[in-house]
Design goal:
With about 180 residues, this protein is mainly beta. Among the domains are: about 1-55, no CATH class; about 110-165, no CATH class. Helices cover about 10% and strands about 25% of the residues. The strands form 5 sheets. The chain has a 3-stranded antiparallel beta sheet, with no helix packed on it. Strand 1 and strand 2 (about 15) form a beta hairpin. It is rod-shaped and about 125 Å long.
């Protein structure tokens, strides 16, 4: 194939390449720099531009959500990423809220118990005298009177463990740390 020429930006120098022999259209042994060229020999490869753009979209401290378990460094090609919020819901920041007013705070419980406040209860009632016919022959007798009482211990009354999970959808969440 014939040699072709390519010009980058408004530079006067031209790089030649043969598109039949090389996997990459432009090759260089010079350092690759991101951003606008500052020297006439600066070259920016399109592959490097992808990393520059994605680094701007995902700066340090951003969160990446996915249903793919692969570390974003492998997928995006840059950054150090740590998994976060494993087994936890993500909640938006709310100013002056004791629970949601600190970024990266964690709290809540997966299960909980509902205590029941019954107070200390003691009750008693005297039983009434009753006439009873023991064998149906018309002969009756009077049952003895007495008192029945019971106590309820408030510490032993609760609802037991209750699941506290609303409907959910599980994802992988990563935070860029470097």
């Amino acid at each position: 194939m014939a040699l072709r020429q390519i010009r980058i930006g408004n530079l006067d120098n031209v790089t030649q390449y043969d598109d039949a022999d090389f996997d990459e259209a432009i090759e260089t042994d010079q350092p690759i720099k991101a951003g606008a060229p500052t020297d006439p020999t600066d070259v920016l490869r399109l592959g490097d531009l992808t990393t520059v753009v994605l680094s701007a979209v995902f700066p340090i401290g951003c969160v990446y959500l996915s249903i793919v378990s692969t570390n974003p460094n492998t997928l995006l090609g840059f950054g150090t990423w740590a998994r976060i919020a494993e087994g936890q819901y993500l909640v938006g920041f709310k100013t002056a809220d004791a629970d949601f007013g600190v970024v990266e705070a964690a709290g809540g419980n997966k299960t909980h118990i509902h205590p029941v406040d019954v107070g200390v209860t003691t009750s008693g009632a005297s039983s009434a005298n009753a006439l009873a016919d023991n064998n149906g022959d018309g002969t009756t007798f009077s049952a003895a009177t007495g008192m029945a009482t019971h106590d309820v211990d408030p510490a032993s009354v609760n609802s037991g463990d209750n699941n506290n999970l609303p409907p959910f959808f599980v994802i992988y969440s990563w935070k860029r740390t470097a």
